[in-house]
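$ run holo --ligand "glyceraldehyde-3-phosphate" --emit C-alpha cells
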Amino acid sequence: ALISLRQLLDHAAEYNYGVPAFNVNNLEQMRAIMMAADQTNSPVIVQASAGARKYAGAPFLRHMILAAIEEWPHIPVVMHQDHGTSPDICQRSIQLGFSSVMMDGSLGEDGKTPTDYDYNVRVTRRVVEIAHACGVSVEGEIGCLGSLETGMAGEEDGVGAEGILDHSQLLTDPEEAAQFVADTGVDALAIAVGTSHGAYKFTRPPTDDILAIERIKEIHARIPNTHLVMHGSSSVPQDWLAIINQYGGEIKETYGVPVEQLVEAIKHGVRKINIDTDLRLASTGAIRRELATNPAEFDPRKFFAKTITAMQEICVARYEAFGTAGNA
Ligand code: G3H
Ligand code: 13P
Ligand code: NA
Ligand code: ZN
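-- output --
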C-alpha cells in the first residue's frame, strides 16, 4: 500500500528504527528493493531523483513504483521525490501521485548554489502548503552536505554545492534547524553532519567519529518531533570496489559511512537514511564480473539478474541493521 513519509516515520520513531531510502531508476533496482523488503518484512521508501526521471521518464518511474505496490500489496511503500529544486517540480510530483516530496531549498534551482535562509524558508513553506493540502509529506534541508575532511560536496556532477564549503555550512546549526521547522512545518529535515553524496566521501578508512554524532544529538534534542534525514549515507562496500577493479574497473581508493555509525545515528533521531551509491556499485560489480566470466553469453537478462541479487543483498543487510525488518 502507498503511505506517506510522515505515517512511516512516525511509526519508526515510536519503535526506534530507521528506514533506508533507496533511489530507484530501473526495474532491477525496484525489484531488488521490494524482494529484500518482502524477505525481511520491511516497509519501503523508494525515491526518484531528477536524473531518474530523465533516465526512465516520469510515467515509467511512476508505474514502476505502482507496479511494485500491486505485486507486493502487503508492503507499505513511500513514493518519494528526492531533491526537488523548486516548488513547481514538487507540485508536479504531487500531481504524479508521489506521497512525499523533498524541497531542497538549501541549494538554488541549479542544484549547486548555496542559498540564504529566507529563500530556503520561502520555497519550502510554499511546498508544505501545497503538499499538506494533498496529504503528502515534505522533507526540507538545512545546511550543505559536504565532507568535513575536505570541505567538498562530494560529487562532481550530481547533487551538491559547487566549490569548497566552510565548516559552519557543513554542520547544521541546531537553533537554525529549530527555527526552520517552526517557519516551514516540514515533516522531515535533512541535516548536514559530515556526509556527502557519491562514492568519494572519505579518502582514508573512516574512524568511529567520522559523523558528527554530538551534533545529531543536539539537533534531535532541540526538535524531537521532526524526523531527521541523512543524505549521502552509502557505506561504499570495499568488497564491491575490489570486484569492480578486479574485472577491469578503475575506481580510486575511497570510503563511505560505516553501517555501525548509521545505526548510532538512528539511536538519536535519524529516521530516513538515503542510499544510492551502494546499489550502483553492487550493480556495476555484478555486471563486470558476469560479463568477464561468461564472455560467450549475450542474453542481458543473465547479467541484469545478477545485479538484482547483488542489490537485494545490500538492501536486506540495511533493513536488518537499521531495525526496519519486521515492521511492514
Ligand atoms: O542525491 C543524489 C542521488 O544519488 C541521485 O543521483 O541525480 O545521479 O540520480 P542522480
Ligand atoms: P549516496 O550517494 O551516499 O548513496 O547518497 C544518496 C542520497 O543522498 C540521495 O539523496
Ligand atoms: Na530526499
Ligand atoms: Zn541526497
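-- notes --
The pocket of glyceraldehyde-3-phosphate (ligand 1) is lined by residues 23, 49, 51-52, 82-83, 158-159, 197, 276 (CB under 6 Å).
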